[in-house]
Amino acid sequence: MPELDELESRLDALTEADFQQGLEVFRGKLKKAEASYLNSCVHCGLCASSCHYHRMDSTLENIPAHKLELISSVFKRNFTTMGRIAPGLVGAKPFDREMAKAWIDAVFGRCSLCGRCSINCTIGIALPKIFRAARAALGAMGLVPPDLQATVDNSLLHGNNMAVTKQDWVETVQWIEEELQLETGDPGAKLPLDKQGAKFLFTVNPREPKFFPLSLQASAKVFWAAKEDWTLASDGGWDLTNYGLFNCNDEQAGTITKHLVDAMARLGCKTLVIGECGHGYGAARWEGPEWLRKSYPFEVKSILELMDEYVRDGRIQLDPSKNTAPVTLHDPCNLVRHGGICEAQRRVLRKATTNFTEMTPNRVENFCCGGGGGQLAMARYKQRRIQSGGMKAEQIKASGAKVVVAPCHNCIDQLMELNKEYQLNVQIKTVAEMVAEALIPNP
Amino acid sequence: MEPLHLGVLLAGAWAILTLVFLHLNAKAYGKRTLYSKPAGDSVQGVVYAFTKGMAPWAKESVRMNLPSYAAGMVFHAGVFTAFGLLFAAIFGLELPPSLVFLARILTVGGVLGGFSLFGKRIFKPQLRGLSCPDDFVANLLSSLFVLLALTWTFSPALAGVWMSEAILLLVYAPLGKIRHCFFFFTTRYHLGAFFGRRGTFPPRA
Ligand code: SF4
Ligand code: SF4
Predict the structure, then answer these.
(1) Which of A325, A408, B7, B114 is positioned for an S-S bond with B75, CB 3.0–4.6 A?
(2) Planar angle of CA A155, A160, A165, nearest 5 degrees
(3) What is the DSSP string of B13-66?
(4) Are the CB atoms for A63 and A403 separated by under 8 Å?
């Protein structure tokens, strides 16, 4: 694997200045909350079973506290008095090549930043905050796995993470529009592009035009049924993804967020609507303003919230008998635990299906599918990703569902692989696909 | 005042002052200015984090590890009780027999909890792998402190040994992991505020 060599050779070439730079960036990421977290772990080990990596492979390296300890040992050594005076006693360690390698393995290779350990920690340490600081430090040292960085670079260079050209995007939208008109029998059914002053700017994951056009068509059908005033951007600002959330380079993440902010300003829309994507929602809704260091002059909503409102306000009518197969719901970590969007999708699914059953555990206690934290973009950790996803596969099997609804295209990619690997024999769909299926055309 | 009593008080002052210093040090890292619009209430999140969020049924990690959780709880109850006894001993407070009886039960629990966790740390390979010397020192000092408090209720002549150990414990407390006696509160506060602001805490289902 050439990439492995690239990272290895970068590790070999690290200079003292690189380590200093890494430490500086790490220190810069810490505020009083993180300083408190780094002083708090009591090594009780109770977080072990909360992590899907550890559940599927119970090695020491997969215990969240062990991953944390690698980082806090460096913190202690460099930023605390006791760590300098008695490093052996308090477990303080220097930041050297071996440690940098261990950090890469821990925070990129064994963590999807899902935050399940945070809510299960005896003390209440939000561990991903520390893992993110470590990822940022490694990034400053040129130690982000190259394929993850390439995804970020695509967004920076092409305005979307899959380097879809403007022509391809526009043609795909037009083609989906024709399909939608055929499906609804309404020549007025549109996928508006660059509609000035539209109420909503709708954004999608580039996987939709590339591989899942039916998913975009389903969202468009819902907007059509609700007679919504919406638009897509033809250029810059249609891709909701932001892998800057995963390489933890705030500057790059901010630049990618700006694509959305600029599109909102250009088109004069009131609300930015994030399609079904966990990390995309987290990045745009929660982290974007922090990266840009200013509040947005507009609202951000998930399409799940909109669909919930449509159902509640009677703007769309659903016939649940169109979806009778047993359905379960996956909770994307960035949307639910870290995003706070928890009930909207459930209310909608209960109206759109006859046989909805929860996975156990669910909501804030959900297990990551294994594809979060940029794992899908890091080929070197594929085996661990699939293995750690075994936890989700077990949950799906236990639910007895035939359809798994996942309001996130990254999760869908991972679930499709799990479907094959663990022979789950399920269909995997978005919420909008379920809703589109159940729509009763407006009179 | 007896020299040992004075020693304990001085060690206590050291512990408190050092913890205050550590807190100020952590505070000096600064507060994050947040620009995203809140979806929930951080105050409600903090309240949840310190109340229902700490209930055994609220956390899978506890539900799956009830014996360890129980050991931790009785250990901590024992430590707090031992500090109560220490206060009474230093200031010459006469405790009613019922309170002494209760203190004995709590300290017996504390001793069992403390030493069982110590054993677990030694014998469970993964927990041993997670540990540094501080983990053992902290546990040993605290467990011994509770044990000596218990023995003092039977034999006041042991006060000297107990207080000497208490001095060691108090001097050591802010230097290693026992500092979590303070940082537990700040950490849980930050966790609650974070998830409260995002509308995750308290869970709404
Ligand atoms: S954030 Fe998730 S993947 Fe990472 S250590 Fe915690 S539980 Fe495991
Ligand atoms: S549960 Fe929290 S305090 Fe205990 S070992 Fe894990 S991270 Fe540390």
Answers:
(1) B114
(2) 120
(3) HHHHHHHHHHHHHHHTT-PPP--SPPSS-HHHHHHHHHTGGGSGGG-HHHHTTH
(4) no
Angle between helices B180-197 and B42-50 (to 10 degrees): 140
The answer, yes or no, to whether the previous bond of A361 is cis (omega within 30 of 0) is: yes
Rounded to two decimals, the ipTM of the complex is: 0.97
Q: Searching chain A, which residue's CA lies closest to the CA of residue B129?
A: A60
For A270, A273, A285, A302, B42, the CA distances from A299, given in Å and listed in that order, are: 7, 8, 9, 10, 20
Token duo for residue B27 = 């505070």
Q: Is A323 left (phi over 0), alpha (psi -120 to 50) or beta?
A: beta
Hey, CA dihedral for B12, B18, B21, B27, is it positive or negative?
negative
Query: What 8-state DSSP symbol labels residue B198?
Result: T
B150 three-class SS: helix
Total residue count of chain A as it appears in this document:
443
Atom 8 of ligand 1, residue of closest alpha carbon: A51
Instruction: Say yes or no: A342 contacts chain B, CB-CB below 8 A.
Output: yes
DSSP-assigned letter for residue B91: T
Question: What count of CB pairs under 8 Å joins A to B?
Answer: 173
Ligand 1: atom nearest CA of A54 is 8
pLDDT per residue as tens, chain A (443 positions): 455 579 999 999 999 999 999 999 999 999 999 999 999 999 999 999 999 999 999 999 999 999 999 999 999 999 999 999 999 999 999 999 999 999 999 999 999 999 999 999 999 999 999 999 999 999 999 999 999 999 999 999 999 999 999 999 999 999 999 999 999 999 999 999 999 999 999 999 999 999 999 999 999 999 999 999 999 999 999 999 999 999 999 999 999 999 999 999 999 999 999 999 999 999 999 999 999 999 999 999 999 999 999 999 999 999 999 999 999 999 999 999 999 999 999 999 999 999 999 999 999 999 999 999 999 999 999 999 999 999 999 999 999 999 999 999 999 999 999 999 999 999 999 999 999 999 998 75
Chain B contact for A271 (CB, 8 A cutoff): no
Return the CATH architecture of domain A2-143: Orthogonal Bundle (1.10)
Reduced to 3 states (helix: H, G, I; strand: E, B; else coil), residue B132 is coil
What are the residues whose beta carbons fall under 8 Å from the beta carbon of B40, sequence distance 6 or more?
Answer: A340, B196, B197, B198, B199, B200, B201
Atom of ligand 1 nearest to the CA of A112: 3
Q: What is the dihedral of CA A288, A294, A296, A302, to 10 degrees?
A: 30
Alpha carbon B170 to chain centroid distance?
Answer: 12
- CA dist B163 and B89 (Å) reads 9
Of A69, A86, A295, the CB nearest to B35: A295
Residue A64 one-letter amino acid: P
DSSP symbol at B179: G
The CATH architecture assigned to A314-440 reads 3-Layer(aba) Sandwich (3.40)
Handedness of CA B198, B199, B202, B205 (dihedral sign): negative
Read off the DSSP letter of residue B74.
H
SS3 B153: helix
